[in-house]
Amino acid sequence: MTAADLRIRPEPGSFRDPANRVFHLGDQVLRGLGPQGAADWQALAGSGFFAALLAEGKVCGTAPVDPATLPDTGWTTVLRHERIPFVSHPYEWSFGMLRDAALLHLEILRRALEAGFTTKDGSAYNLQWRGATPVFIDVGSFAPLTEGEPWAGYRQFCQTLLYPLLLQAHLGVNFQPWLRARVDGIEADQLRPLFRGVRRLLPGVPTHVHLHGAMQARHAGASSSAVAAQLRDAGYSRDLALATVRRLARLVRRLDRRVDGGHWVDYQRTCGYTTADRAAKESFVEAAVAGVAAALVLDLGANDGRYARIAARHAAQVVAVEQDPAVVDALYRALRAEGDQRILPLVMDLADPSPGGGWRGVERAGFADRAHADVVLALAVVHHLAIGRNVPLAEVIGQLAGYVRPGGRLVVEFVHPQDPMARRLLANKPAGLFPDYHRDEFARLLAARCRVERQQELPCGTRTLYQAVVDG
What we know:
Blueprint: E1 8-10, E2 20-25, E3 28-33, H1 35-45, H2 48-56, E4 62-64, E5 77-81, H3 95-114, E6 117-119, E7 127-130, E8 133-136, E9 142-144, H4 154-171, H5 176-181, H6 188-191, H7 205-218, H8 224-233, H9 238-254, H10 267-270, H11 275-290, E10 294-300, H12 306-312, E11 315-322, H13 325-338, E12 343-347, H14 367-370, E13 373-378, H15 382-388, H16 393-402, E14 404-415, H17 420-426, H18 439-449, E15 451-457, E16 463-470
Parallel strand pairs: 10-11, 10-13, 11-12, 13-14
Antiparallel strand pairs: 1-2, 2-3, 3-5, 4-5, 6-9, 7-8, 14-16, 15-16
Helix pairs in contact: 3-4, 3-9, 16-18
């Protein structure tokens, strides 16, 4: 091992629970447990329900590590977790993704309660994805249940999972900007004014928004132990907790998107590609990805996932990024039905990608800090950034190349100003605003930033594909 391999690197997003913390050692993902956390782990590891969750892949792979194989960590016990292919955040998920994550969280809590355990947290950040399959990652959240104790994660569950779903399902408001704004999620007091009048009676709102908000206000000055004691005195039990979890699951399962479609849902039908154009483009992309042993491919502006699927034939993991939440949701539901574990669809505006957030701006890493791919596909996206969002061509190329690991490939499509799609965008701009938007200038800027390996003009004559190596 090198000195870098032996250096412990704490995970910036893991510090809120003093009983355990995630850290990295080389390419290993490890979790350190203090005395109480170690005792909880021993009980958990011996339980049948946890073994079943591991076998079903619903909890991330976890096993204890021999301390002799590690430098001194200062923790009582150390666990090794499987590495999630690409870490994403709930404000990058579609409605269907958030709903399925919530349902998995509730299933795990129900099974834990039935076995005499609970989860200390209820956050959406406790879940990640293997392709389109959710997986619970916060093993340190499990603890033996104390009879009469309420679920400590209920408020987190509401703020980061239930409330965003209610916002979208009942009001048709995309939840992603709300979750991106605050790492702790949406407060009950933020939602209550939106659910007045007849909206007060919408499913889930009376109990989980208004009553919960009122109870929070009533007990604002009380300690959590005092509130728990009051509930125990009132007869709160595991059976009541299980009934609540089952009702929550029924509610979440019934919720669905209020908005049926998005602007780009019919893109493949309306984009104007001929059969010859599409065949040539697919062949170019397949050859570009097949020539690389890619651990990660980014498909930026993925739309319905046509090219992400091609990339997935040759790559371990594909992250398909698309701005329109409805399009991402349609792609996710298709992938989920197929049981796909290679393509992760995400909602993101490439002109405003996810920044770092939370404590000190690093608790939730920004997209640029997570996205280091062997191959980046940027097909039919340059004109939207350069013309639609007024980003200079050099800046567009710089951002796209910045997502590529040194030695990796950038596959990019330039839509000429004569193309119908480019002309439509230019028609909404003042004349002469983009004098540098032409193929020769794009090719010059690309060659200055990357090493162009090949290029191909599509049969339509108004679009050119480039394959380039980013040397660093």
